[in-house]
């Protein structure tokens, strides 16, 4: 394969013992070159790719970019193949991609339909370019027309949706669109009056920046281009039929992976978190007191502060593990109490030496259990709150729970439901840890001491975020965020 005569030298004379290719098979050195010279199909594809490459570089307007990209494909992308099947697939995709640059406009058609390459774009293409993201669930009409008006700027345009979209891309005279990245569950189509390198990527749709899907897009762009933000974002459930991307005067910090910022808590709160190895790590609202890479338990485990016995929820029963490691299981919930539909969490009542379980689904109940006598005492209605985390606060002699509706739910020390308050909207950046457009509020572990409540996000056994919520002032702040986020 020749690249402007720089990388390979074309020689037409070949040995009768080898197949015809776009290069001299007697000089084949790499694995790919040797496979091409041995396979009739690969030889045909290599010759075809050489022809398409010649036609693609005919235009001085696109020649330089294509040559650089072709050298990268030959020396890096193609070199990843270890068998003929891989090479065949790569050649077919490459021929299809380069065909983008040789397609001629039919006389009755205004735009090119851009071929979407499945290769990853060269990282250098984003240097000095703005990243513009247009995303949503579905188009308001069949077609979305985008006009990029960023005078004297180079732009990487990122388009994503769930439902199929016919994207029509335009740019003003002094705007350069260097590449288009497009993603979608249903096959999208991209057209433009100009030939623009276009790549299909596995990125989700996002309707706003406070969502884990938006974060996922940023993470993928960081992987591709080593950037942690986008410069412009237009997101909505229904994508408008016409969108004009105009210049902006200031940087939107919410469009960065660094958002939201961490604040210093106004009150101190220390607590212990249980690891999967049944050890404790000391924490504050600002993180662990000492460096820790421990894996933490999110739900379903508690410890007696008097005996240090560990209690775990196991299929509607309570399993205890004492200091010697011996395990004991509680009796089943008696028939005079509601059946546990789905026990989500357990906590220890240090004042009464009791255990309490919260159930999820249906009406929901708070069950109290006396371990010393293996006796289930009672069950109180959760008033249809789906609670996935519960904590007994000795200071206030009450239970504090977190619900799937993003509420803090309060029960008395005797187990009776008292009140609830939606707090999720006050937790800045909370939406970025789950898909809040399609799912209920993400579970948070609760630690409470009077009016001070810590709401802890644990993902993959790691603490990712801590929010501090003050009941008296009704104020929440993000006080800890793991560096990986």
Description:
With 485 residues, the chain is α/β, with parallel strands linked by helices. The protein has five helices and 30 strands. It has a six-stranded parallel sheet. It has a five-stranded mixed sheet with strand order 1-8-6-4-11, with no helix packed on it. Helix 1 packs across helix 2 and helix 2 (40-56) packs parallel to helix 4. The longest helix is centred in the first third of the chain and has 18 residues, at 60-77. The two termini are 44 Å apart. Residues 1-18 have low confidence and may be disordered.
Provide the descriptors you would attach to this structure in a database record.
single chain, 485 residues, alpha/beta, 5 helices, disordered N terminus
Write the layout of secondary structure elements.
Blueprint lengths: L30 H8 L1 H17 L3 H18 L6 H15 L13 E2 L2 E2 L12 E10 L3 E6 L4 E9 L4 E6 L3 E10 L4 E4 L5 E3 L11 H14 L6 E8 L2 E4 L24 E5 L5 E5 L2 E2 L12 E3 L6 E5 L2 E5 L5 E3 L13 E7 L4 E6 L5 E6 L4 E7 L5 E7 L4 E6 L3 E6 L4 E6 L22 E5 L2 E8 L2 E9 L4 E7 L4
Parallel strand pairs: 2-9, 3-5, 3-10, 4-6, 4-11, 5-7, 6-8, 7-9
Antiparallel strand pairs: 1-8, 12-13, 13-14, 15-16, 16-17, 17-18, 19-20, 20-21, 21-22, 23-24, 24-25, 25-26, 27-28, 28-29, 29-30
Helix pairs in contact: 1-2, 2-4
């Amino acid at each position: 394969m020749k690249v402007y005569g720089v990388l390979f030298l074309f020689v037409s004379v070949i040995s009768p013992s080898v197949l015809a290719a776009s290069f001299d098979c007697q000089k084949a050195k790499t694995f790919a070159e040797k496979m091409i010279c041995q396979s009739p199909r690969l030889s045909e594809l290599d010759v075809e790719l050489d022809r398409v490459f010649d036609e693609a570089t005919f235009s001085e307007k696109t020649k330089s970019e294509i040559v650089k990209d072709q050298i990268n494909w030959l020396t890096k992308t193609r070199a990843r193949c270890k068998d003929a099947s891989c090479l065949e697939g790569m050649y077919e995709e490459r021929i299809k991609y380069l065909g983008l640059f040789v397609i001629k406009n039919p006389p009755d058609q205004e735009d090119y339909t851009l071929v979407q390459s499945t290769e990853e774009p060269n990282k250098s293409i984003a240097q000095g370019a703005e990243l513009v993201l247009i995303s949503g669930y579905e188009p308001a009409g069949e077609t979305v027309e985008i006009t990029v008006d960023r005078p004297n700027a180079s732009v990487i345009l990122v388009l994503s949706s769930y439902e199929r979209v016919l994207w029509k891309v335009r740019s003003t005279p002094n705007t350069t669109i260097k590449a288009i990245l497009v993603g979608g569950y249903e096959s999208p189509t991209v057209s433009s009056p100009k030939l623009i390198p276009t790549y299909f990527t596995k990125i989700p749709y996002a309707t706003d920046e406070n969502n884990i899907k938006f974060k996922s897009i940023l993470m993928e762009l960081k992987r591709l281009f080593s950037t942690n933000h986008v410069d412009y974002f237009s997101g909505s459930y229904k994508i408008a039929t016409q969108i004009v991307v105009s210049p902006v005067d200031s940087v939107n910090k919410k469009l960065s992976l660094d958002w939201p910022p961490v604040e210093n808590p106004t009150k101190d709160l220390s607590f212990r978190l249980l690891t999967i190895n049944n050890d404790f790590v000391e924490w504050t609202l600002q993180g662990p007191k000492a460096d820790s890479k421990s894996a933490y338990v999110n739900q379903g485990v508690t410890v007696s502060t008097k005996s240090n016995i560990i209690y775990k929820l196991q299929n509607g029963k309570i399993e205890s593990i004492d200091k010697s490691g011996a395990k004991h299981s509680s009796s089943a919930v008696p028939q005079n109490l509601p059946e546990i539909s789905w026990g989500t969490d357990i906590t220890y009542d240090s004042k009464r030496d009791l255990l309490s379980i919260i159930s999820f689904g249906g009406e929901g109940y708070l069950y109290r259990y006396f371990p010393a006598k293996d006796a289930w005492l009672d069950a109180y209605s959760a008033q249809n709150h789906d609670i996935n985390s519960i904590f007994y606060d000795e200071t206030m002699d009450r239970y504090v729970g977190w619900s799937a509706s993003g509420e803090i739910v309060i029960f008395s020390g005797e187990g009776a439901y008292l009140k609830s308050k939606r707090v999720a909207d006050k937790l800045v950046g909370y939406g970025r840890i789950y898909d809040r457009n399609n799912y209920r509020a993400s579970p948070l572990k609760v630690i409470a001491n009077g009016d001070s409540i810590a709401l802890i996000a644990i993902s993959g056994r790691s603490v990712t975020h801590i929010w501090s919520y003050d009941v008296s002032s009704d104020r929440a702040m993000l006080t800890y965020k793991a560096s990986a986020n």
